[in-house]
Amino acid sequence: MQDLLDALASGDDERAENCIPAIVDLGAAVIPPLLELTRARDADSRWWAVRALAASSHTCAAHLLPLLDDPAADVRAAAALALCNHPHGDAIPALTKSLADEDSLAASLAMTALVKIGKPATESLIEVASSAKMGARIFALRALSEICDHRAIPVLMRSMSEESAVLQYWAQIGLERLGLDMVYIKP
Fold it and tell me: The whole model's pTM is what?
């Protein structure tokens, strides 16, 4: 196992990627050493640890949640992507917070993970779409447009009158997907 972990943290991307299947084959026994590697000093090692955790069926959302606050944007993005593979309702608060990440890739991947969680994320997304800063609101509306939960109709309707064309766009898409697209006829 140690040889595989050393390869993972070697700094050689091809070598690290090639050892992922063997690491996954180790099963649950490799999860604690991978979690330890997520606390390494260098971001590259932490990223590869997250990559390996994402590939393992023995990983749970709780393993990945702390990594959404990693100082390195790449690690935060990898953690959000890993949560797309391991969606769970327990991740909703942390992923919702990540919609405001300064790194747009990390925020976008957090949105994708919330979409994978689906309707259980609706209430949190409505709250963000109603009151957060613009970037997070856009991601929240986009997620709501993909989840297609009727509870989002009021916030989607309110967003149609926003000054932001992007908010209007995602609100319109969400309403169309819910079957509430509107045709305006000039009298």
Answer: 0.89
